[in-house]
Design a protein that fits this description.
binds ligand NA7; single chain; alpha/beta
């Protein structure tokens, strides 16, 4: 494999406050909110919650990532189980289905408390419906309430409180989280009591994102072969009815070769893998998505797992 330097480590500036968020009128809930996972999305969401006056308890596998949050007023705990003990509502936002299950069922995990006494568990990681249902069953058997929350949007959208939230499960948890959702999202949808629907909708949306990014990357790579300025292509693209905020942003990143992660490429590929597995169970043919998945897999092999999903452009240029 070629050696590709890792993207710069993400640091969070707790003092930089989004203007959009600052202008929002939010009365924070008096509940204590636990948060498991301080990656790109988790750390941005926790920052938003602290900025709007929520009481937050955090844990992250790499403990050093908790330091800026402790300085900003969050309580830091040593295990997910400790977070559950100290919180009323616990959010989880980690990489993939395996990490989500480990946090709930693993050693010193969420279910280490044995009895959840009506506490609420909110799974925010992008996972498949079956994993969400397994987690719901575990939480409910321990006397907890479960809500599946899928977040759609980029890190910048999280920072500005402009995510789209798709929720399903226990309506009372949805209501408990009202001020948190008002902080981080521009639109919030409750899709009903059935667990799994929000995951399905989110993965369907991610299919559109993944396939579109590969199309954009291939088109820009062809322009590059003709030595046509990518900036010119993007400028013209912006004038067409094809333009979208996402494709414009990603096109600009591809043109500049700036692949600092907003949404890590490995997560995009994981989402496509989950989509294909859902489709497989239904005998649903998705040839374009399958090829898109191969393109992202290959880009991962080239060393771009931790870069932004726009790094798929690098592969298209070969
Ligand atoms: P990141 O920035 O890649 O962060 C991933 C987070 O998941 C980070 O806190 C990791 O801890 C944590 N993680 C990963 N594996 C594990 C295991 N096995 N146990 C505990 N914690 C783990 O992802 P994003 O924030 O961009 O995305 C999060 C989700 O939202 C994901 O599902 C996306 O698809 C959407 P670390 O800091 O590495 O110790």
């Amino acid at each position: 494999r070629p050696v590709v330097s890792r993207p710069e480590a993400q640091t969070i500036d707790m003092n930089a406050r989004s203007q959009t968020l600052a202008e929002r009128d939010i009365t924070p809930s008096q509940l204590t909110f636990g948060f498991l996972g301080l990656g790109i999305m988790g750390s941005t969401i926790v920052k938003d919650l602290l900025c709007t006056g929520h009481k937050v308890v955090v844990w992250n596998r790499t403990m050093s990532k908790c330091t800026p949050f402790a300085e900003a007023g969050a309580d830091v705990k040593g295990t997910p189980m400790d977070v559950v003990e100290a919180s009323d509502v616990i959010f989880c936002c980690v990489s993939d289905p395996k990490a989500s299950k480990d946090l709930v069922f693993g050693n010193c995990g969420v279910l280490g408390v044995k009895e959840m006494n009506g506490k609420a568990y909110v799974e925010m990681s992008t996972i498949d419906p079956e994993t969400s249902q397994d987690i719901a069953e575990g939480i409910q058997s321990a006397g907890g309430r479960y809500l599946e929350v899928q977040i759609h949007g980029t890190r910048q959208e999280a920072e500005d409180g402009m995510l789209i939230i798709l929720a399903g499960g226990d309506r009372s948890v949805f209501e408990d989280c009202h001020s948190c959702f008002k902080t981080i999202a521009k639109n919030t949808f409750f899709l009903g009591a059935e667990v799994g629907n929000a995951c399905k909708v989110n993965l369907i949306l991610q299919t559109i994102v993944g396939v579109s990014l590969v199309g954009l990357a291939e088109a820009l790579a062809l322009a590059d072969r003709f030595s046509i300025s990518l900036k010119d292509i993007i400028d013209i693209f912006e004038l067409t009815s094809m333009k979208s905020q996402l494709l414009l942003a990603k096109g600009k990143e591809m043109a500049k070769g700036d692949f600092n992660p907003q949404q890590p490429l490995s997560h995009m590929q994981k989402d496509l893998r989950l989509v294909l597995s859902m489709a497989e169970n239904l005998d649903q043919s998705m040839p374009v998505t399958a090829i898109t998945n191969e393109v992202f897999k290959h880009t991962k092999r080239l060393g771009y797992s931790e870069h932004d999903s726009s790094a798929v452009f690098v592969r298209s240029r070969f």
